[in-house]
User: Fold this.
Amino acid sequence: MPWYLYLALKQLFPTGRFPFFTAISVMGVALGVMVLTIVTSVMGGFGYEIRRMIVETEGEVTVRPVSLVEDVPATLAKIRAVPGVVAASPYAKGPVMVMSQGIPAFPVFRGLDLDSVNAVTNLARFVSPVGAMDDLDDDSIILSSQLAQTLGVRLGDAVEIYSPLLIEKLKSDEIFLPRPFRVVGQLYVGHQQLDSSMVYGTLRAAQEIYGLGHRAHGVNLRLARGASESTVVARLNAALPGDLHAYLWMESWADFLWVLNLEKSINFFLLLFIVIIAAFSVMSSLLISVVRKTREIGLLGALGASPRQVALCFCAQAFVIGVTGTGIGLALGFGVLAIRNEIVHGLTNLLQRQGTLQQFYQFTDLPSHTLPSDLVVTVVAAIVISTLAGLLPAWRAAKLKPVEALRGE
Amino acid sequence: MSEPVLHAQGLAKTYQSGDRRIAVLRQVDLEVRAGETVSIRGESGSGKSTLLNLFAGLDTSDAGQLAWEGKPVVLAEATRRRAAFLGMVFQSFYLIPEIDAFQNVLMAARIRGIPGPAERAKANVLLRRVGLSERATHLPAQLSGGERQRVAVARALLNSPRLLLADEPTGNLDEHTGDAVVELLLALCRETGTALVLVTHNVAHAAKTQRSLFLHDGVLRETRVGE
Assistant:
């Protein structure tokens, strides 16, 4: 090992005594990396959970027309013939007004094709009571859980759904009566948006509400396991007529995902300042070290060390602090992530605000999903910033002339 | 007659102090041959340490020439040549506190290159020779002043230098320990054929070297000890 690396390690971790200054510098970097790891993982978790919920409730790909899918059976046949497509299910959806006991709500009504929906989505696992999906017919609906709570509706209750067509009919002096439905189940996904404003019914009921006839608003698709989503989408777009276009779930939710990514990037940028502040602590302790070891630096010069090697000794110390701090920070970060839900639930119980979390955030449990790319960016940023912090002390040490440093006595 | 390992001719050094220019060294001429031991005495502030720094290539002179083994010393190259050519012993030992005695000795070889088994063996031999083989794993803080200086002597000799420069090596030691360190220095230089330039205030120590010089008014003069 070159002497400057050997001496750097010995100065950071001296034999026989606790490396106090090193510990403080390392912990600064570690705290920064820990927070970055936790935040990027939790933000990644939000993205991952959203993907899971979207895919499990709508499939991985959606085929949407410019206006309406005119010939649903023919379109389904074309879609199912594309390699990589496992299942396809047509749907119709749009906003409605739900009225129960004089209380109005304005959710989205989603009409499902009961013959094919279970092959594309996993909606049934989010519905209670178990088997409620089997009870769904043209006169019944499933309400998302928070919507049912808002309307004060229980299983078996009747609600009325007003179509937007009501306004069109009124313009031509026609009366369009609300459609009565019986509530046969509640849907709880764990996503605030889906749990608060969705009504699931049959495709036929939706077609009736929107006056679609046999047409549909689109088709949801399930892809084969391991199939390349983008490749299948490209194949679909090549196979389908020009007025139909296949969208990956990411494209369908692009605005939402963009906001989520922006939030994640801003969080990363702001939290990176913890590492930058820690880097100043590293710089400060190394500058103190240069002053304390002025005569030793002079001695190294007298023994034949070059200024470049002296500089490398201090740069290496900053690098080792960065690497050690990053390693400890990652361990702490993943440790905290492992018990994140216990911490969150402990805090909400302590503050007696168990309901608040569910009310204002998307998930009841704190999700976590660490993307390798996030991890690489965190590790590289922390190590590079820490190493850069060693440049000024290294430059000062290299600038010391041995004869002047030795005269420091 | 052995070839000179150190040749200095007309060395001069002036320091600026405010508006004043202080001529510390005016005309220093010295030739030290291989294996020769030379002492330099002088009053405090007479420029002894400055002269030693010039000899070591750590500082540049305002005038004159310096050569190591017949080759002129250029400051830019001195760093590279220093590790192989000379060893230095200082009044304040300058051991690295974070590493033990053995590693302090070995540091001289580390700076010259990656130390191999031969260098490690030699470090052990030198530590045994200076009477510290039992203390090889002790940190400098666990050693007495005399022991620290002996470690510094072993470090200075590890790379088998042609010249050893000792700047008041007994200045921080009691009389008895100082005598022992100088005896050790002289004995080791004799055994290894290393030339020694010893800067000292101590007349008795100076008397033990082959030549004794006195630095006064910036000029180095041959003297008999006791003058």
Q: What stands out?
A: Helices of chain B lie at 48-55, 75-85, 101-112, 117-129, 145-157, 175-192, 203-207. The two ends of chain B are 28 Å apart (CA to CA). Chain B touches chain A at residues 49, 53, 56, 58-59, 79-80, 82-84, 88, 90-92, 94, 96-100, 103, 107-108, 110-112, 114, 139, 155 (CB under 8 Å).
